[in-house]
Amino acid sequence: MYFFSTEVTSSKIYSDNPLYQRTRKAYELVLDKIQGNVLEIGCGEGYGVTMYHKKAKQLTLIDKSKYSTYHIKKKFPNATVFHKKTPPLSFISDNSFDIILLFQIIEHVKNDKLFIKEIKRVLKPGGTVFLTTPNAMKSIARNPWHYKEYTYNQISNLIKDVFNTYTIMGIEGNEKTDHYYTANEKTVKNILKLDLFNLQYKIPSFILKIPYEILNRYNRKKLFRKNNKLVKSINIKDYYLREYSDKTLDFFCKMQKTN
Question: I need a surface site. Which of 6, 167, 169, 187 has the fewest CB within 10 A?
Fold first, then answer.
């Protein structure tokens, strides 16, 4: 799989730090909500699980990476771990979980409508789902790992077709993170100038993954070399939960099962 690719942000690679801290922010935001039976889909290397697992009565973790689930089982032996692609969630009973975490996962799901319906099915009445996904309006280039990226209206329409009760907020950064993402945008656009025929949108995603990975890793390392002090200094407190705006980096969605 892509356990240490640029798509799965690593806590072990310095040049990943701005995105690593951004993904950690979602976990920080839900720490005081974790209780009962908890499900997380797309747990990756498990740095988020480390933050909240002691608060869960029972923990179920699902990831499509065999490498991830192997290490997750060793790290959290008391958790129920599945190596599976979703949807469906046919191996899980109705009304099973109090809390479900879906952080940076739905953009990787081909059948997003079925996915959300299955999430509601396995959620207990009164339970809560927390979901994050990148704001499509902030994307600079095509990400071949993503089936779809969402605008505010698109993620809202997807959710409201299934859940009656939900809110959508935005995770955004400060001047420090803005400086990093502005530099990133500049270098990515310089790379894209080489794509004279706009091939990124014409070739199949499985072909694009290799050059995307090479260039993305090159770009992050370049940004780190140019300003390692900035890249290393960005931390979880540099990201904030706000009302959705044109500065939103990731949507932060909360859905509750009331019927």
Answer: 167
Number of residues in the chain: 259
Fold for the domain defined by 14-256:
Rossmann fold (3.40.50)
Rounded Cα–Cα distance for residues 193 and 55 (Å): 48
- DSSP bridge pairs for 135: 150
Is the CB of residue 139 less than 8 Å from the CB of residue 79? no
* Residue in the block written with tokens 């969605």: 253
pLDDT tens digits for range 92-140: 999 999 999 999 999 999 999 999 999 999 999 999 999 999 999 999 8
Average model confidence (pLDDT) across the chain: 92
CA atoms lying within 13 Å on the CB side of residue 246: 0
Question: Among residues 184, 202, 226, which one has the least CA distance to residue 6?
Answer: 184
| 205 within 8 A of 107, measured Cβ to Cβ | no
